[in-house]
Amino acid sequence: MTDRIDATHDASLQSWVASANAAGTDFPVQNLPLAIFRRAGSDEAWRPGAAIGDQVVDLLTLRDAGLLPRDAADALAGTEVGTLNALMGRGRAARVALRQALSQGLREGAADRAQWQAALVPQAGAEHGLPARIGDYTDFYIGIHHATAVGRLFRPDSPLLPNYKWVPIGYHGRASSIVASGTALRRPLGQGKGPDDAAPQLRPSQRLDYELELGIFVGPGNAQGAPVPIAEAEDHLFGIGLFNDWSARDVQAWEYQPLGPFLSKNFASTLAPWVVTLEALEPFRIPFTRPEGDPQPLAYLDSAETRARGGLDLQLEVWIQTAQMRAAGQPHEQLARAGSRHAYWTIGQLVSHHTIGGCNLQPGDLFGSGTLSGPGEGQGGSLLELSHGGRQPLVLANGEKRVFLQDSDSIQLRAYGVREGFRRIGFGVCEGTVLPAPAP
Amino acid sequence: MTDRIDATHDASLQSWVASANAAGTDFPVQNLPLAIFRRAGSDEAWRPGAAIGDQVVDLLTLRDAGLLPRDAADALAGTEVGTLNALMGRGRAARVALRQALSQGLREGAADRAQWQAALVPQAGAEHGLPARIGDYTDFYIGIHHATAVGRLFRPDSPLLPNYKWVPIGYHGRASSIVASGTALRRPLGQGKGPDDAAPQLRPSQRLDYELELGIFVGPGNAQGAPVPIAEAEDHLFGIGLFNDWSARDVQAWEYQPLGPFLSKNFASTLAPWVVTLEALEPFRIPFTRPEGDPQPLAYLDSAETRARGGLDLQLEVWIQTAQMRAAGQPHEQLARAGSRHAYWTIGQLVSHHTIGGCNLQPGDLFGSGTLSGPGEGQGGSLLELSHGGRQPLVLANGEKRVFLQDSDSIQLRAYGVREGFRRIGFGVCEGTVLPAPAP
Hints:
five-stranded antiparallel sheet; homodimer; eight-stranded mixed sheet; 11 helices; globular; alpha+beta
């Protein structure tokens, strides 16, 4: 790990943007996550920005004002179209050049402060597009506690299937319906069939759920037919954001055999604005280990570096605000906490597995981690788990009960990394509110 | 049906391109399928073309020479980027305008013949790109004989699951690895585990197969959250081409539970060059019926028009050429025949089902039909079926045997519609050759 910790991670660095120095901020100068933004409600072109405290720094304004060194300016070429794909495709060196330049320019004591100041836009006055044009989206299933808990509900006899500890299970998802945080989503209509119903019927989903996931963006792609060796796997990744893979459990239960989830997952998925780069996450890398007695990964998924630093230790949270809470002026309330350290596979292993048969990845492709639940009570990354399959309602502070989502519920995902000797690195908020279903 | 049969379908129409009048041609003047092409081996820009006999007519050359009426010229706006997406998004009226103009200009006795002649490129000297930038690709499973035969192999106790006759089963596939006909593909590496193996191992797929499918292109899209009513469903479709969804059966058997096929299907899928428009297929529309005793579709999948003309009666074929045949100068040999009339769901039902939960379709999206097998011996749309799960080798004319594909095998898919009183309408050829796996 230590060879990738540099001066940009130094916990003593302060920014001249005062809000970036607050203890609880998601966006200290050590983070510098990237997004696509514009002034809220404007018809400005979407453009790339980096978060610093409660501000967004407009990267093309910086570049066009000549405030970035050549390598950082070059890193931005192609982002004028309003996506980060070109930067993603350029790989680690370009990303690091940009990080270094932003760290230099935003830290306390930097030169050209007035000019940099002119490139700031308050986050409160910004709106966000998707960070990338997502060519293909793949959802994995690396949260073993989620896989076990959900497996128990769908298949009581064999919750965790024999392939789980060998294959990083994944499936292709729908790219077109991935929306930016803050976009409301309609409750889906779909076929549902109870165990005692003679026939299915079309109805608004009665078991609408969220899923707490990380969204991992692909950086440079690979050629079709050319698997990515595990030693190079992370060279093909860019960074990580929060991802809510909304799910209609009743639709899923009826439709998913034999080819997997389809309409139960493709009506909307919500992506947080900010992509935290692999560099910003460096302090939170941890060894990848398997529980005693579990098989070691096959060779194409195994490497010394994977074992030494393949894991990622982030804290994840789910928060809810109901219509009643909103009317009463109550903020979101925490529903669950979990952690990425419970992932059964590393982000690098996902790259090598995805490409081992020759599938080509492209810059801006998205991997969902799958729901990241912890092992304990209250650590489920979905209501399906928290409510024990819909049998045990959760009781909120105001006395309202939930087994699944009701119309007007707003769900927020949040995440951060904390480690002794480093600044807290946050992911911002991934938010979506449920609208009623259309008329059937 | 009759209201959509017009003068362009008249079987007595002849073209001044003599090869279009040959009895066996796929491309008489009644067809006029569309593709993206350029001169083979050139670095010309990809551009749209229509097939006529053994020629491609260059549509932008026609337009730029002022040979197309305004509505047909307008239909081509945006195709200069080298994809048909813009035309697809414009819907039926634009497509019909183009068809009318091409039918007028290419028929015997048309004016401006010399100028039209100058826009012809021999198909033998052309190469093809993908017809569209495919945002999302969905593979359905509408061949009930395939679903039953394969189901029997994977799940002897319940070959056809209880949802099959209610839900048009589908799943999301990988768009990035869809390649144009003629592109060779590498045999994939993947995990395989026999029933008696203690652990899986990584190896070249031992059960590589093709799948005989139709590829259905989406025309105008729908807004997220807005299902497409069945009465409007075909307004959102453009046309149909041949599609080979190569499959690694050993990988599939080990990986597919519980979330569906992933690496077993995403290493390569081959799309034929030519997209036959819905208009050209009009003579082959047939009533959609359900076998006696089967449930009728739910209301969102049912309409008078669906019942009257939802089906499609096309003949489908699979042909093989092995390395030994190639060396001996032998052409491809027919492996199987099947028909699209065995589909359990209509193309319009696929649109309404895909969008019922609110999923947004976009112009150029692709639906695979799923393997279209017939009910009889020799009508399987995959080797898995023809070889009865790998247990009964097929014997080729030269004595070679096949249970699954061997390296250097070339597979061609072909299709056509025939109906008394109409010209034969063909789909051209969808071809791919298997290369050896990369070193593990």
